[in-house]
Amino acid sequence: MGPVTPGGRLATGIAWTVLLLGLWLWGREATDVREGISVPTTGDMAAAGRPPDVPLPPAHEPLGDALPQRLDIPELDIRAPVLASGLDTKGAIEPPPFDRSGSVGWYADGVTPGAAGTALMVGHVDTETRPAVFYEVSALEPGETIRVVREDAEVAEFTVDDVQVLTRDGFDAQQAYGPRDTGRAELRLITCGGTFDPATGGYTANVVVSAYLTGTGG
C-alpha cells in the first residue's frame, strides 16, 4: 500500500481489513478443487512456524518499484509467470483463471515485490484434474529461496523465514499478512491448505509463506 495521510488513515485501514478478509474467503470458499484429487494437507508440519534451523541472512535494502514478471522457486522447480490481479466482488484477490493454473497472481494495487512493504501473491493448489502452481509451497522451509524476476531486469531474491498453516477457526489476518519487520521488503505466497471440505466447498486452512528480500541478481 502507499503512504497513508492522517486524513486517509481510517479509509485505508478499512480497505486493508476488507482485503485481508477477502484473502481468507478466497482460501476458504473460492478454491475450485473437487473430490478425488490428491491434495497436500499442510506440507512439512514440523517446519510450519518453527524457528529456522540455519542462520538467516540480513535483510537487503528495499528496491524501487518495478512490475513482477516471473516467480522462481528453485527448490520446488517452479518457474511461473506473474499476472496482475485486482479484487473480486467479495474483496478477495482474484487468482489466475483455472486455464492458467501454472501462473501466479500478484495484487497489483499493493506493493511490488522487492519494494518496501509486503507484496502479496496468490496461486491455486490444484484444479479439478491436476496439481497447480502452489501445490508444494507448504513444503518450503526457512532459509530456502524465492526469486522474482522484475521488468527492470533486476531479480529480487527473497529468503523464506516462516511457513504457517492457519486454520479457518484460528485465522489471524495481521499475523498472516501484516509486515514482520517494518522497513523491510517482504513477500507472502498464499494458497489453500489443510483438507478439502465437501460441505463448504473449500479448504480447512490457508498456507502462508513469508519471505524477505536478502539480495538481488540480474
UniProtKB/TrEMBL annotation:
NCBIfam families: class_F_sortase. Keywords: Hydrolase, Membrane, Transmembrane, Transmembrane helix. Pfam families: Sortase. This is Class F sortase. SUPFAM superfamilies: Sortase. One of its GO terms (molecular function) is hydrolase activity. InterPro entries: Sortase, Sortase_dom-sf, Sortase_F. The chain crosses the membrane at residues 6-26.
